[in-house]
Amino acid sequence: MLLPLLVMGSLAHAQTAGTINFTANKTSATGSLAPVLTWSTTPVASSCTASGAWSGTKFASGTETLASITASKSYTLTCAWGNGSATLSWVAPKQNTDGSSITNLKGFKIVYGTSATALNYSQSVDSPTATSATVSALGTGTWYFAVRAVNTSGAESSNSAVVQRAISAATAAKTVNITITGSTTTIWQTTSTAVYDVLSSNGVRVLGRQVGTVPLGTSCQTYYKVGTDYYKVRNEKVKLTTQPRSSSVVARCAKI
Predict the structure, then answer these.
(1) What single-letter DSSP state applies at residue 26?
(2) What is the pLDDT of residue 13?
(3) 56-63 contacts: CB < 8 A, separation 24 or more?
(4) Which one of 66, 118, 204, 235 is separated from 97 by 20 to 30 angstroms, measured CA to CA?
(5) 188-201/170-181 β-pairing
(6) What pTM was computed for the model?
(7) Which domains does the chain have, with CATH numbers?
(8) Strands of 56-58's sheet, edge to edge?
(9) CA–CA separation, 147 vs 201, rounded Å?
(10) What is the mean pLDDT of each run of 10 residues along the chain (256 residues)?
């Protein structure tokens, strides 16, 4: 049998954060915009979460069309790369348990796990001169490690002293800001409560008689105009007092 190894040190490395590519179809608009967000991660992230003006768990890459916005919004994507690594270093034994010199050392075996009493994973190091090795693909949490010496006959030493290190996930975040400025669309509203029906004179629309009333500030439909400042208003907004002689009714309007 071989003498137990002496582990001199252990250094755990958190996983290095990857890169997030996160863009929007537009980052500015007038009035409103339906954002289309597109993202990808390199290397592929283990998880991604949305925050800000959107939410939920997201795939490591994708495209999503969101509801239209009328005010400036910020969208943040935070991704995690959950696997880390631990680098172990050791001093190899020089003697067998009977005191004789080791002449047939083949290499080493790292045993590890998430409990000091359950080192259920292993990694071989096939070099008798090796003094360190890195164990990769470790998930977030505390991991425990020991090293054994292995001779050419396949005999293994007892475990070295067990060491432990916490592995933490690496994260990165990226934010896309979308700016919405005020609409330049001109809005027309009623400036009088009187509503009139419409007649035709020589193919030209002319104002008829008053047929009802409409609340001040009612939206006007500027595609239908009579005279200089009368425009169509929706019939359902009108309180009729007289049956109109036309299907469309108008009121005095002005732009705001």
Answers:
(1) -
(2) 52
(3) 62/38, 63/36, 63/37, 63/38, 63/39
(4) 118
(5) unpaired
(6) 0.48
(7) 19-82+173-181 (2.60.40.2470), 85-164 (2.60.40.10), 188-255 (no CATH)
(8) 28-30, 170-181, 73-81, 47-52, 56-58
(9) 103
(10) 50 69 95 94 92 96 94 95 82 84 92 94 95 86 92 90 84 95 79 96 95 95 94 95 96 91
